[in-house]
Amino acid sequence: MKTVYGVIGDPIEHSLSPVMHNAAFRHLGMDCVYYAFRVTLEDVRDAILGAKALGFGGLNVTIPLKERALEIVNADPIAEEIGAINTIDFKDGIIGYNTDGIGAKRALKKHNISVKDKRVLLLGAGGAARAIAFQLAHDGAGLIIVNRTAPRAVKLAQDVRGVGDAIGTDMGDLATLVKKVDILINSTSVGMHPDVDKTLVTADMMHPDLVVFDIVYNPIETCLLKEARKAGALTIDGVNMLVHQGAESFRIWTGREAPVKVMEDAVRCALKR
Ligand code: NAP
Q1: What's residue 63's pLDDT?
Q2: What is the pLDDT at residue 86?
Q3: Would the CATH topology of 3-98+240-272 be identical to that of 101-236?
Q4: Which of 10, 188, 199 is the best mutation target for the ligand 1 pocket, counting ligand atoms within 8 Å of the beta carbon and taking the most?
Q5: What is the pTM of this model?
Q6: Contacts of range 219-224, beta carbons closer than 8 Å, 24 or more positions apart
Q7: Where are the domains of the chain?
Q8: What is the mean pLDDT of residues 96-119?
Q9: Whose CA is nearest to atom 34 of ligand 1?
């Protein structure tokens, strides 16, 4: 009998997770299938307990359920620290994980970027930013967290200072700050389809030694990355993180190394369609 996996969220119809995980299962000849399920906040508990009762292999959890779902599962310490989960494993109870931070770390590593002792400007203080901030702080980066709503940046920096070096501020000094850092990461939704012409940072604010990582993956080359290319900076697109956070979920569920290249090809192909 096939083992069923899935992603729950609302909206969910544009999720690339089914394409990515089904490609991996097919490639490895595993008798498994992955579906997307629209689940509202009111139904998240029933959906998780129902999936467990039905014998699902595991779930991914996406917007807007990541924080609420944390309250329902036994969360691992990293997810607890972040305050949100994106992966549930049913092998031994109902265990929640957050693989976004590791996804971002591996996206950087794939491009031979280590964050240790680097100055990193993280744009955003939402769910994805929290996961990335904790990961990078654990890995020894010096973080400047910049957010439109400044108190969220200040709060995230305060939380992260338990494990590393971070300050939080508003967008007022963005141009000056970008000049001073080694790595710029956009973890806001600015530039995401359909607002593809929007960016918070332009080429004139950058320098050629900068690494620019945009976690937005639709479009693959965002306006920010186009600007970074103009400035001669190294660019990393959001598909890298998407694939690596998915690969870590896959490893948690199946105990097998995920076929990362197969998953990446499937996602890039789907996005180009
Ligand atoms: P979220 O929790 O809703 O956070 C959104 C962030 O974007 C907040 O910091 C928000 O600032 C900021 N923002 C939104 N509109 C803005 C604007 N017009 N100007 C300035 N800042 C703005 O969302 P999330 O879950 O963190 O996701 C953020 C983005 O990352 C999405 O595009 C998502 O698709 C992408 N993502 C990618 C991956 C991947 O694997 N590549 C994984 C997760 C998420 P305020 O606090 O001021 O509202």
Answers
A1: 93
A2: 98
A3: yes
A4: 188
A5: 0.97
A6: 219/193, 219/271, 220/268, 220/271, 220/272, 222/186, 222/191, 222/192, 222/196, 223/191, 223/196, 223/197, 223/198, 223/199, 224/186, 224/190, 224/191, 224/199, 224/200
A7: 3-98+240-272, 101-236
A8: 98
A9: 216
CATH for 3-98+240-272 is 3.40.50.10860
- The CA–CA distances, whole Å, from 70 to 77, 109, 124, 231, 242 equal 11, 28, 21, 41, 20
pLDDT digits (tens, 9 = 90+) for 156-165: 999 999 899 9
Q: Write down the architecture of domain 101-236 according to CATH.
A: 3-Layer(aba) Sandwich (3.40)
Please give the Cα distance from 94 to 126 (Å, whole number).
Answer: 25
Instruction: Specify the length of the chain in residues.
Output: 273
With beta carbons less than 8 A apart as the criterion, state whether 2 and 15 touch: no
The backbone region for 111, taken as left when phi is positive above 0, alpha when psi lies in -120 to 50, beta otherwise, is alpha
In the chain, the amino acid numbered 161 is R
For ligand 1, atom 43: residue with the closest CA: 128
**Residue 76, CA distances (Å) to 73, 84, 95, 191 in order:** 9, 10, 7, 32
